[in-house]
Structures are given as structure tokens and as C-alpha cells.
Design brief:
Blueprint (H helix, E strand, L loop, with lengths): L9 E3 L3 E4 L3 H12 L4 E4 L8 H4 L4 E2 L19 H13 L4 E2 L5 E4 L2 H15 L2 E4 L2 E9 L2 E9 L2 E5 L3 E4 L5 H5 L4 E3 L7 E7 L4 H4 L3 H13 L9 E3 L9 E6 L9 H26 L7 E5 L9 E3 L7 H5 L7 E5 L3 E3 L7 E3 L7 E4 L11 E3 L8 H7 L2 H19 L4 H12 L2
The structure holds flavin-adenine dinucleotide.
Flavin-adenine dinucleotide (FAD) binds next to helix 1, helix 2, strand 4, strand 8 and helix 11.
């Protein structure tokens, strides 16, 4: 046993610091590592994937063009998102599936996503991945973010990076360093995913019809809270009697700080899932023997703080499938807003088309060495309901990581844009 007084921080050598190991962070760290930069990736949980694994969302959207007629899924472009998807298909036997209105998704088991993310980041080289590392301080001098402090398994870390890619889902590092951000917490409703086993496989095929009927009755008679009707199926589940369900809550109360709101949501959702499980066993015959196999370790918060960038992705950019000469990622998912009704509001753009996300939507307006990706993107509320999906987050992460590495290594950003655009061509 050794004893000491206090804990000195460990300083990590770093060109590109990636904060957050969700879909966007996995793309960013892989890109920067492959471009030859020394990368540090800090992730607050003990595994990668972000909402794709912690909230167990279960399907990747944004990989394939919307198409109501084609027999097979058409990738929206080349590049890292497709590489990641191919790996999941190979390792976990995942297969694209057409859902509503010609939208295609790739269902996946969450543990397989975490394994694929870990492997792909590790194989990229040059990445020092630190798990259980939570960033709590970021300091800027003038127009540069110069220092970040984190606690990794309760030990202090210090990083002084050349460039930073904020992939926290909440633009946390950018905001801590003083960058302008927008609070989107009230834009969309959160949801908790849970898995039931031993359910009659026919229930999913019938679109949960018996569940919906009984829930309606129970809510009307006052025996279940109205929120229980906001239950939906995670596509691609239900075979072998294993059903993943999503329970949506009400959007955030604008008068509560988000940390307080999230605590209230987590407690409410977990209590509702317990009530729903009991109800399904008692009232819905195909669920008579249902076992509650798991509840996602984290509530899925769809929308949070996002950056004010040098450009802002507008709703019209998405709906008009606009292209840009500075486009570094392609979005192809419809606008999908989860508000107060049980089903999402969907707004579609043309089939077999996509929109571009310009690099300036990933660059902080006021901090020259900070980029963002995924849910931190600079976007209007409607545009974000499309651009936040996992396939697009992988792609914006890759773009931001490439640009951050070029900048850290003293290469022109125009060259980064050209390299990324080349990869997107199929
Ligand atoms: C209920 C729900 C259902 C959804 N369904 C789908 C779907 O079916 N298909 C789809 O494609 N998309 C879906 N989405 C959207 C999609 O899951 C997310 O938008 C996407 O995963 C975001 O990726 P990201 O990397 O930007 O952020 P996140 O996944 O949120 O990743 C952020 C990462 O940063 C880490 N982090 C945060 N703060 C810190 C810090 N201070 N220090 C260190 N690390 C930190 C987090 O732990 C996390 O790993 C859904 C979302 C929700 C909530």
C-alpha cells in the first residue's frame, strides 16, 4: 500500500482532442487518427456508442436513400458511415430493413455496436482512448480553446490540444469554453427503451395492435397514465419473442435546468416501464409470459444544447435537398419530430435524394480550433430532427475529425474538404 497527499493531474500529449465517444466521436477519432494526428478520445462511460448503446436505440437511420420501390437499399454516399455499417453487417449479421414511406434502417444489437466502435477506433491507430473520463472544464484564450480538464475514473487529466472536436451531444466543451450555443432541450421528447422476452412473435407482425387497443382502454378509464400510450416498437425486433419497445415522455419543461429535468425524466420513465410491464402481462394475451429482460441504462434525450457555428443548417436546406460545394456529409433521413403526440411528425423530401452538410456547420463561430459533430451540429430545430440520426452523426464526426487533424497538422482546410468529398463519391 502507498499513501499520498492530493492527486496531481496527468497531462496527455495530444494534437486532436475528441470529447465524447458516441457515433460522432467514433467517426471523429477514427478520422483524425488515420490522418496521422495524435488523438485523445475522452468518453464518460465504460464503452463507446453514446445513445446508440446507452439508450439502446436499436436501428441506424441516415445510411440509405429513401426509396419506396427499390428491392435493395442504396447507400447515401461512400465513406466512414458505410464502412461502419458494413462492419456491423459482417460482425452482427445486421441487414437493412425498409420501414415507413420508403425509409431504410439498419437494425443492430447494441453490444455489437459498442464492439464495432471499439475495434474500428483502435485499428485507426494514433488514438489514446480513455473511458470513464468526464470533461468538466474547458478554457479558452482569445479565439482558441487551450486546455481541457477531465476526471478519468476519478483521477484528474489535463489536455492541451491543438484542435478539439466536441462530440458530447450537448456541445459541452464548446459551451464551457464560452462559445455561443443554442438550447434545443424543449424541441423534442425523450424516450426510454426496454426489452421484453417471451412475447408471442405475431404481436410485432400485427403492429402491436392488441397492445394499442388495451392501452387506449386503460388510459381512458384512468387506470394507466396517458404517457403509457406513447409506446412504439423498435423496428426489426419482435422475432424470437424478443421485443424492444420505446416509451416517449413529454418534452422538457423550459423552466427546469436540464440536469434537474433529466433526473425527473429518468425516474418517471423507469416507474412507467414497471407499470407497463405488469399491465401487459395482465391484459394483453401475447404478453402473458413476458419477462422484462433489460431497460436501457440511460434515457434517450433526442435534443439538447447545440453550437452556433459559422453556418447553420436550415430546414429549407434539408427539405430542398440542397447541395453545397463545401458539403462534407450527406443527410438523407426525413425530418422526424417527436413532440406531444404518440407518433412522430414526419416531413419528407424527395425520394432518392440527399442534402449536404457544409463544413462551416461544424465549425464554432467564435473559437478557431473547435469543431463539433453529431447532435452538437449548428442547425435549426427542424433540420436537427433529420441530421441527428446515427448514420449522419458518423459522417459529420468523420468530417470534423478529418478537418481537425488537417488543421492540427498545419494543412489547409480546403484540402480536408476535398479529401472528404472524394470519399463521399460512390
Ligand atoms: C429515444 C431515441 C431514439 C432514437 N432512435 C434512433 C434511431 O432509431 N436511429 C437513429 O439513427 N438515430 C436515432 N436516434 C438519434 C441518435 O441516437 C442520436 O442522435 C445519435 O446517436 C447522436 O450521436 P452523437 O454521437 O452526436 O451523440 P451521443 O450519442 O449523445 O454521444 C455523446 C457521447 O459523449 C459522451 N459525453 C457527453 N458528455 C461528456 C463529457 N462531459 N465528457 C466525456 N464524454 C461525454 C456521452 O457519454 C456519449 O457517449 C434516437 C435518439 C433517441 C434519444
Amino acid at each position: 500500500m502507498t499513501s499520498s497527499r492530493g492527486i496531481d493531474p496527468t497531462t496527455l500529449p495530444c494534437d486532436v482532442l475528441v470529447i465524447g465517444g458516441g457515433a460522432a466521436g467514433v467517426g471523429a477519432a477514427s478520422a483524425a487518427g488515420r490522418a496521422g494526428a495524435r488523438v485523445v478520445l475522452l468518453e464518460r462511460y465504460g464503452f463507446l456508442g453514446g445513445l446508440a448503446t446507452t439508450a439502446q436505440v436499436g436501428t441506424i437511420c441516415g445510411l440509405f436513400l429513401r426509396d419506396t420501390t427499390a428491392a435493395a437499399a442504396t447507400p447515401v454516399g461512400g465513406g466512414f458511415a458505410q464502412e461502419f455499417a458494413s462492419r456491423l453487417q459482417r460482425d452482427a449479421g445486421a441487414k437493412p430493413l425498409r420501414v415507413d414511406a420508403g425509409l431504410w434502417v439498419l437494425p443492430y444489437p447494441p453490444p455489437a455496436f459498442a464492439r464495432a466502435a471499439d475495434a474500428i477506433v483502435s485499428e485507426s491507430g494514433n488514438v489514446n482512448m480513455v473511458l470513464h473520463a468526464t470533461v468538466a472544464e474547458a478554457r479558452a484564450e482569445g479565439r482558441c480553446l487551450v486546455q481541457v480538464r477531465a476526471l478519468a475514473w476519478n483521477e484528474p487529466l489535463l489536455v492541451r490540444p491543438s484542435t478539439v472536436v466536441d462530440c458530447t451531444g450537448e456541445a459541452t466543451a464548446a459551451a464551457l469554453a464560452g462559445a455561443a450555443v443554442e438550447n434545443g432541450a424543449t424541441d423534442q421528447a425523450p424516450a426510454l427503451v426496454f426489452v421484453l422476452e417471451n412475447v408471442d412473435p405475431g404481436l410485432a407482425e400485427r403492429g402491436l395492435i392488441e397492445v394499442r387497443r388495451e392501452l387506449r382502454r386503460a388510459v381512458e378509464s384512468g387506470s394507466l397514465p396517458a404517457l403509457c400510450e406513447r409506446l412504439s416498437l423498435v423496428p426489426g425486433t419482435g422475432r424470437n419473442g424478443r421485443l424492444a419497445l420505446k416509451l416517449s415522455l413529454a418534452p422538457a419543461n423550459p423552466d427546469l435546468p436540464l440536469w434537474q429535468q433529466v433526473t425527473a425524466w429518468e425516474r418517471e420513465a423507469r416507474s412507467l416501464v414497471a407499470q407497463l410491464h405488469r399491465f401487459l402481462i395482465e391484459k394483453v394475451a401475447p404478453c402473458r409470459n413476458a419477462r422484462l429482460d433489460s431497460v436501457a441504462p440511460q434515457l434517450g434525450v433526442r435534443s439538447g444544447r447545440r453550437l452556433q457555428g459559422r453556418a447553420r443548417l436550415a430546414d429549407e436546406d434539408v427539405l430542398g435537398a440542397r447541395k453545397s460545394p463545401l458539403g462534407v456529409a450527406r443527410g438523407c433521413w426525413a425530418m422526424e419530430r417527436w413532440g406531444n403526440s404518440p407518433r412522430p411528425e414526419m416531413t419528407y423530401f424527395n425520394e432518392r435524394d440527399y442534402y449536404d452538410i457544409p463544413l462551416d456547420c461544424l465549425r464554432a463561430a467564435e473559437l478557431d480550433n473547435v469543431l463539433v459533430a453529431g447532435r452538437c451540429l449548428s442547425a435549426a430545430a427542424g433540420a436537427m430532427t433529420s441530421a441527428r440520426v446515427i448514420g449522419t452523426a458518423l459522417a459529420t464526426g468523420w468530417a470534423a475529425g478529418t478537418a481537425a487533424a488537417f488543421q492540427a497538422l498545419g494543412q489547409p482546410l480546403d484540402d480536408a474538404v476535398a479529401a472528404i468529398r472524394q470519399q463521399l463519391i460512390l
